[in-house]
Amino acid sequence: MKIIIDGVAGTWTEDTPAAPELPEGYVSPHFRESEFTCNHCNTMEGHEVPQELLAMLEDVREHFGGGPVTINSGYRCKTHNDNLGSSDGSWHRYHTAGEGAADIVISGVAPSTVYQYLVQRYPDRCGIGRYDSFTHLDNDADRRRW
Asked: Is the pTM of this model over 0.85?
């Protein structure tokens, strides 16, 4: 047995990478918290971007060559959500810790292509929606498609 990376003895620690330090304002290696703030009030009203959603977005970014993934809509305050005609149950509202959604665009990649990848990658879970100009992704444990 040896001590590796995290200072805990055990063979399982050999593959455990140290958590990277993120630059100020970043919530993952490639996404800033400001990208997820409400387009109406420019806040997140005390909510945090779910780590699971960030992991999925990092995965999408890597799959499509590592280029920028633009977040058109992340968190939405009630007013903004209502103005868009979205339901009170929208995952963009981040009702509880761990829930979240993002409407994304990848330059040079059709939303239908992003949709197809996400459906293949997460066949039994997540809300995945295809629109003409963006793709919706949320980290719902249940599978929803539109």
From this structure: no
